[in-house]
Specification:
The protein has a six-stranded mixed β-sheet, sandwiched between helices. It is globular, with a radius of gyration of 18 Å. The longest helix has 14 residues, at about 120-130. The chain has a single domain (about 5-100, about 165-245), classed as P-loop containing nucleotide triphosphate hydrolases (Rossmann fold, 3-Layer(aba) Sandwich). It contains eleven helices and ten strands. The chain has helices at about 45-50, 80-85, 100-105, 105-110, 120-130, 135-140, 150-165, 180-195, 205-215, 230-235, 240-245; strands at about 5-15, 20-30, 35, 60-70, 70-75, 85-90, 170-175, 200-205, 215-220, 225-230.
């Protein structure tokens, strides 16, 4: 039996009167890659934004039900502390364009008022960039702007920025959709290494990507979780007709 790190219980999310996630019950296993799939507008991105409470930033956004992280209700956490434990990487690479590579990596500490010695900063920057498989490419240019990097390197810098906070979970919202195939392949290879230390939840439209790298797959349709199983089972023997239709290209 796999250890569960994250569990949702009768979870619903709304934008005003629009009901975008409907009674989602899901247990995410620790140190695995879980893919979240489904047609556009099915609630995939909303689901992961609820996990680190970014959903609350949107006007008229509300939720009901509970999300547990290591058995604790995330809605009782200080949101800033929660986001240290649950990192987020977005669809478009978004390094802070006024900051150097070095400052980007430690920005989670500096922007939240943490005081670190130069030695601590240096160590965090080097370790995080090494974990993001970027250190060798940027170690001689740490004080250049992060925006001088290629798109794939910028996305790995964003992953390093997330890793710097030593999260337990990394959420990725279509992290390779803006990247070329070579950069995509590097990110996928990186995620397969990172799952040895982190729990990874990735929203992807790319079924081949989900099949290549994920251990488990959740399929959402119109806000409902219609399928959740080991990825191999979801792709070869889905239980729900909607999942089967999506995978075989009959809709979505």
């Amino acid at each position: 039996m796999e250890s569960t790190i994250l569990r949702t219980e009768n979870f619903n999310a709304f934008f005003g009167t629009s009901h975008v996630l409907k009674n989602v019950n899901l247990a995410i296993p620790r140190k695995k890659i879980s893919a979240v799939m489904g047609p556009s507008g099915c609630g995939k991105s909303t689901f992961i934004r609820c996990i680190n409470r970014m959903h609350e930033f949107i006007e008229n956004a509300t939720s009901t039900g509970i999300i547990f992280l290591d058995g604790e209700n995330i809605f009782k956490f200080n949101p800033t502390m929660l986001r240290r434990r649950v990192g987020m990487v977005f669809q478009q690479p978004n390094p802070f364009n006024t900051m150097s590579i070095y400052k980007n990596v430690i920005s989670g500490y500096t922007l939240n008022g943490y005081k670190l010695s130069k030695t601590e900063k240096d160590e965090i920057v080097e370790t995080s960039l090494k974990h993001a498989a970027l250190w060798d490419e940027v170690k001689d240019n740490l004080h250049k702007k992060g925006t001088f990097l290629s798109g794939g390197q910028q996305q790995r810098l964003c992953i390093a920025r997330s890793l710097a906070m030593k999260p337990e979970i990394i959420l990725l919202d279509e992290p390779t959709s803006a990247l070329d195939p070579i950069s995509t392949s590097k990110i996928e290879e990186l995620l397969l290494v990172l799952k040895n230390e982190y729990t990874i939840i990735i929203v992807t439209h790319n079924m081949q990507q989900a099949a290549r790298i994920s251990d488990y797959t959740a399929f959402f349709y119109l806000g409902e979780l219609t399928e959740w199983d080991e990825t191999k089972t979801v792709f070869t023997n889905p239980k729900n007709e909607k999942t089967s239709n999506y995978i075989t290209g009959r809709f979505g």
